[in-house]
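Case study 2.
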Amino acid sequence: MQELVFSTGEMPAGDWRRGLYLGRIETAAGPSPVLVRDGILHDMSRVAPTTADLIRIRGWEQQGGQALGPLEDVVTGAAGAPTLLSPVDLQCVKAAGVTFAVSAIERVIEERARGDYNAAAALRGRLEARIGGSIRSVVPGSDEAAALKATLIEEGMWSQYLEVAIGPDAEVFTKAPILSTMGWGAEIGIRSDSSWNNPEPEIVIIADRDGVPVGATLGNDVNLRDFEGRSALLLGKAKDNNASCSLGPFIRLFDDGFTMDDVRAAQVDLVIEGTDGYRLTGASSMAEISRDPEILVAQTMSEHHYPDGFALFLGTLFAPIEDRDEPGRGFTHKMGDVVSIATPSLGRLVNRVTSSKAAPPWSFGVGDLMQNLAGRQLLAPGDAA
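Prediction:
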């Protein structure tokens, strides 16, 4: 339920009067793809029933749709306004991990500490001193990276996380099932049995069925540090849970005014505000990413085929280690935390934290969507196949 309300000067999209934005809203009839063009929100459901279809047909500037009015008048977050949904629907949701030096070091700490936050602090200083500078300067997959790997193996400091940080192959995993992602204003879920977790503010690339990047959005790749720290084989339980992934508010489509270079130069800001008065700020600079976004997209595509395209989380520099309560326990979420992720070109993604158990169950799947679209006569013959 959208309980958060936009202020007058803080619209969900960034440069929404000039940029071209693709998203989804919940209408009385069901979910509908929308375009924000010249600041006007257009219902595109009669042009294409899903955002995946709208991306496939292209020609966004020329497509008509039903004008709903200025974005600031239509989407306010107030009672009666359309609910903003996650901007993806049929796309696979993938994520690249350990793409920043700090995240690599933190993953090694999780692994060595076996998910125990009390053991993590002692490891952090030693590992940062030994490999921090080297891992920041090395190019993944290079001869220098291979030499660093050999040295770390000799010193007994090698880790599977360092392999994906500086080796030739990136870590790419499936973050969430189709249609399970949350949008702006929705609650995001943390497993109720997790005691060490954090948000991961990221830029997410949207690629078409051929693996060609078409735009970008913001995402929260909710992370359970205790689960993954106990074993990398628990990655699925650490990452894929009810309501554990949010995207939005809109996909900004690439054009002359917004390109991959803007993604490469972006800084993603994070604010966490608790009901207890706690406040934490952080930032992730894309300039410090170790693998270029286009390389990550290409490695995700690999030899696989995504007929409806995919969304790819690019990873984050943010790894909170500040103590929230007891000294040495670091950061972990509390229920009711409000997480705000923002960058000027893409806007602001805001969600409130709850448990995956308490969050509304995910019950609207692909079959439900096809039945809904068919009932609205939005499917051409063969589209539901």
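The chain is about 25% helix and 25% strand.
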